[in-house]
Amino acid sequence: xxxxxxxxxxxxxxxxxxxxxxxxxxxxxxxxxxxxxxxxxxxxxxxxxxxxxxxxxxxxxxxxxxxxxxxxxxxxxxxxxxxxxxxxxxxxxxxxxxxxxxxxxxxxxxxxxxxxxxxxxxxxxxxxxxxxxxxxxxxxxxxxxxxxxxxxxxxxxxxxxxxxxxxxxxxxxxxxxxxxxxxxxxxxxxxxxxxxxxxxxxxxxxxxxxxxxxxxxxxxxxxxxxxxxxx
Length: 231
Ligand code: MN
Hints:
The chain is an alpha+beta fold. The protein has helices at 36-41, 115-124, 129-132, 178-188, and strands at 13-14, 23-24, 27-32, 52-56, 61-63, 67-68, 77-79, 81-87, 103-110, 113-114, 138-140, 144-145, 156-161, 164-170, 195-198, 206-207, 213-218, 222-228.
């Protein structure tokens, strides 16, 4: 039995739809620019870029339905609604044909982004961590077990700010669909149970004003709502 110099931090978790048991989060991987229209709005070329990844700490996850403070250091917090893939079986160099057998379930996430810090980091060719991996930056809906989700994934993915729809895309428009994302991620790191993969956002990202309410959803998977505190 390992002894610690103080009590370790609790395991980060996210709710499971219709169940009391919670999903233990090991780490959070995120895909950049995985919808063509969003790649274009961010100044990229959707036809030529392979998927790339960044990460958030596991304890950046927060449940739907909570109020989170407006983050420090930013005057331009942005919303990015995303399909979340929850890994239940680990592996390295997973074949795309086997990838879905590694998926425990799916959720609706918001990749909160301090866009002003990200823009500055891009200009200076510095890491994105401070713009992406801050406290409470990864809200996620209750996860739905994969067995209850119809494949292939299809349908609407949307987000509204104070009831006004800002992002309205389709899962069919993912440049790299879930099997490819899981496979390619597993070429770079060994996936383990508890890993969450935020799979990228459709077009329409924009500011989250202090005091606003974010609502979003994905057909067949669920909905999320997060209220943002004042600045
Ligand atoms: Mn994102």
